[in-house]
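Our preliminary data section would be incomplete without showing what the modeling component actually yields. Below, a chain of 512 amino acids is followed by its predicted structure, encoded as tokens that our downstream tools consume directly.
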Amino acid sequence: MPLNDEQNSDSDSSRLSESTASSSDSEYSRQSFNSDSSSKPSSPASASPPKVITFDELMAATRNLSNWTLAHEIAVNANFCIKHEDYPQNSFAGTVKQIVHKAFWDHLESELNEDPPEYEHAIKLFEEIKEILLSFLTPGANRIHNQICEVLDTDLIRQQAEHNAVDIPGLANYIINTMGKLCAPIRDNDIKQLKATDNIVELLRQIFRVLDLMKMDMANYTIKSLRPYLWHNLVDYERTKFQEILEETPSALNLTTEWIKESIEDELSSVSDESSSSPGANSNSKPIISPTLVLNNGYLKLLQWDYCKTIPETLITDEVRLQELREKLNQLKVIACVSLITNNMVGAAIVDVPDFADQLKRISLPLLEGMNKKSFDLKEALNAIGIQICSTVNKSLSERGLPTLSEEMQSNLIGQISHIVEKNNPVCSLIDKRIQLFMRSLLALPSLQKCMPTVPGGLSVIQTEIELLGSQYASIVNFNKKVYGPFYANILRKLLFPEAAMEKTEAETSSS
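Predicted structure:
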């Protein structure tokens, strides 16, 4: 498959096309490397001068970014929902809100207690309540719509107010009953509490509180209803939105380009090292680099990414998920290291201990909680893990009538476990390589294949956890490839074959 129609004879293009046709790419990804859908004049991979954008263009790009991020989060995060959050009571904002609200409701109470009562503010509240109730109705609910408009007719209420004949308790009772018909079951207790409230001002205040909760429930219901539609159309939607951002902000792929460039350099270095160690290798031949391998290496880097740095633009929507995966993976790596050290040093003592691997995880996980925080003392946690493991092993040996571990053996075991924290620790390096091997094998599988690659030796203690984590990671990567494949293809084409890309650009310029 050639890279494009104009360069059928170009050998570099052929190599790129062949490498992208590997079994690890989906059909779409293979097509994307042969298209140029992202090679518009705004592409940051082109040598165009910086573009000055207006404030309106900047705001448009910001709105696109917000919509793009929100749509992605709704579609991929099954737990995404809107939550009711208030300011902390002792905060400045919380205090100001409390004072302002108290002043409003106190003023309303004083107006209703006048002789004759002043109803104007109360009428405005009923008008607002009417609009909120109507917003909950589905199209076609004509009967209840007409009833709400009839009962909460503010013109009629004003006429009644002129004759001091407003039945506020009756109106409030109707509102509560209507809310009970429209609310989600989770709000039934709130409705009961409203019915038990006697003070009319407090009742109106609580009605607005529950209406706010009902609005939140309605928004979450809408999100849930939209999720299947969004998921079905998400690839096209995200790619379109990102293209709009790219057109408004030409630098929107700079970090992504650098990320891919670093991966290419790493791959070239790896190929060079292999060539130098292979006797008879032709040092003058140009190394063939697989674009798929370059991308997969880039994705693997995300599992060790320093998230204090800005992540590539095409991965912003999954930054939080990737960071969480990295943190979980770091925990699992430590547990695998602890297990390997323990088995090597006291394997004979624990060979007959049932479910020792599960016991080790139960010991380690609570002590490793929060290990990715800067304030976390990993060495202290590892020392505590070592002590507890020694205690567990000794208890098991005593129960079986066997001699416990010597003081020297315990000290050595605790010391070896504590040394995991040291840079270039051999056990840690070994486990890290095996985890990388597993993740690399996972990315090499066709995206539709459901089976897992074989877990390398030394990782059996975390097999269940790493397979689940790997599945989540591969899901993020495969979806990202589907959305941004054309953009990656364009960048890879220009970085791997700059001469061919330049010739094509010049040809396009001359033809136009």
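Residues 1-55 have pLDDT under 50 and may be disordered. DSSP finds 19 helices and no strands in the chain. Preliminary results of this kind motivate Aim 1 of the renewal.
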